[in-house]
Amino acid sequence: MTDQRDQHWMRYALQLAQRAWQAGEVPVGAVLIHDNNIIGEGWNRPIGEHDPTAHAEIMALRQGGKARQNYRLLNATLYVTLEPCTMCAGAMVHSRIGRLVYGASDQKTGAAGSLLDVLRHPGMNHQVEISSGILGMECAALLSDFFRMRRDQKKTGRSPSF
């Protein structure tokens, strides 16, 4: 049952990632779930918002806090298409989410086990359960396609068509 639910919400996060792509942002999407209901969602917006913290995960956590009227998001699950960076992983620890589910691993900046493991670090005062690789090939393909398009645009000197 959990696997089907995880795939359902990851598909939703992939739809949010498409919104980031359409805006010219790196296509990462995130959805925050509590009791099988959406309490927050987001997609990457640092370029458009001129905000280095406007990652998909941060946007979803901010909405979740407002929806719950509490910065503690106990028992919530965050679904995100790409393994979180250190900043986002730190926000997850501070928000006390119960679980992270991500699609594609990020060997360069991933802070949920690939480069670092902030979420399960023994020195942290909160540990987050992690499930990885959910629709991982689809999530990775979306990112690969986006960066391939960007490289092609750079080679041909075309402006992005978002």
From TrEMBL:
PANTHER family membership: CYTOSINE DEAMINASE FAMILY MEMBER, TRNA-SPECIFIC ADENOSINE DEAMINASE
Alphabetical GO biological process terms: tRNA wobble adenosine to inosine editing
Subunit structure of this chain's protein: Homodimer.
The protein's name: tRNA-specific adenosine deaminase
Organism whose genome encodes this protein: Izhakiella capsodis
Cofactor: Zn(2+)
Family under the similarity heading: Belongs to the cytidine and deoxycytidylate deaminase family. ADAT2 subfamily.
Catalytic activity: adenosine(34) in tRNA + H2O + H(+) = inosine(34) in tRNA + NH4(+)
Gene Ontology MF terms in the entry: tRNA-specific adenosine-34 deaminase activity; zinc ion binding
Known role: Catalyzes the deamination of adenosine to inosine at the wobble position 34 of tRNA(Arg2).
Boundaries of every CMP/dCMP-type deaminase domain copy: 4-115
Enzyme class: hydrolase
Keyword Zinc: yes
Active site: E57 (proton donor)
NCBIfam families linked: PRK10860.1 (NF008113)
